[in-house]
Amino acid sequence: MEANPGLLAAEVAQDTGDTPAPVGTAAILISAIAFGGLIGMTVPGSWAGEVLSGWVDTTLHVMIFLLFFELRSTAIIRAFSNFRFLALAWAANFLVIPMLGFAVAGLFFSGQPLLFAGLMIYFLAPCTDWFLGFTRLAKGDAELGAVLIPINMVTQVLAFPLWLWLFANSSGLVELSAMPAMLLQWFLLPLIAAQSIRFLLNRTLAPAIRQALFSAVSRSVPFILAALVFQLFAGHVGAIAINPSVGVTAAGAVGLFFLCTFAAGEVFSRLGRLDTPQRTLLSMTMAARNAPLMLALTAIAIPDQPMVLAVIVLGMLVEIPLLTALKHIQLKRAGLVT
Question: How far apart are CA 258 and CA 313, in angstroms?
Fold first, then answer.
């Protein structure tokens, strides 16, 4: 089927112009952690644990639907003209980075299977949202980055059961026989519903109205994510507070991971003979992780394990200033800042 040129142009504009503001997202998440922790420590545990935690599944459904709604399926059409770069980025994200992540997680959380699993789940999934904003700010190839979004999203969700089997099965927390039903309920059905609605809206709404609606969806995602983080911390702050050193250790692990991905990105860029915008894009997609989706899927697959979820949230918070530093490095190397 031939693509609609006007629709394709609108999708590209939205891909490169409506990505979430990472710094604002960080502030929202920190507020959610603080208020969630305060509620969990001051309000009777039965209310925080039962009432707030009882809404977690609803929040998860909404967030997963919105994340899948944001997928621009027309971006796949642009993939065939950039196959060499996309193959390089896919190999970096799904073959090399898992090995780097395994080494880093083992160095920091060896002998602690829950924390090791949380860190690995965070490391394994490349970002599908705010990496594009950082790529654009660093003058990278954001349009090509938009093509990576559906490829990365589909690959990481399909690989999620394998990751659980490899890195969390030994803990006895994962019931792998339930994975097919989980993927159907939490991935396939929301994906079909979200993309069907998006398809209908693309063909029935005026461009200005459609753009305003899609922008509103993009802006709502950080708040839904914050609601989920608030609920998780309010319901489980006691268990998380018992291990305050975990935050420092996780921050050190994420910092080392960023250094490793930066070095690996340099090697891949030279091997692929990438130009500066593509090199910047590769560096960003290798560094940024898809913590929101992994947080949602992990909360479904490994419920009632707050430390696993806390590691993913902490990784997301540490990631944002590191991506900001990476943006400045790329701009300086391109001669765009002194």
Answer: 16
pLDDT tens for each residue of 183-232? 777 778 888 898 899 999 989 999 899 889 988 888 888 888 888 888 87
Q: Which two tokens stand for residue 199?
A: 């398809």
Span 157-191, pLDDT tens digits: 888 888 877 766 655 555 666 667 777 777 788 88
Dihedral pair phi/psi, residue 319, rounded to 5°: -60, -40
Q: pTM surpassing 0.85? A: no
For residues 293 and 122, give the distance between their C-alpha atoms in angstroms, rounded to a whole number.
10
* 202 within 8 A of 69, measured Cβ to Cβ: no
Vertex 90 angle, CA 218 and 333, to 5°: 80
Q: How far apart are CA 327 and CA 338, in angstroms?
A: 13
Rounded CA-CA distance 304/319 in Å is 25
Tokens of 269: 């860029």
- Rounded to whole angstroms, how far apart are CA atoms 123 and 312? 9
Residue 246 structure tokens? 């975990």
Are the beta carbons of 255 and 104 closer than 8 angstroms? Answer: no
Instruction: Give the containing element (helix H, strand E) for 162.
Output: helix 142-167
**Across the strands, what pairs with 289?**
126
Token pair for 167: 């890195």
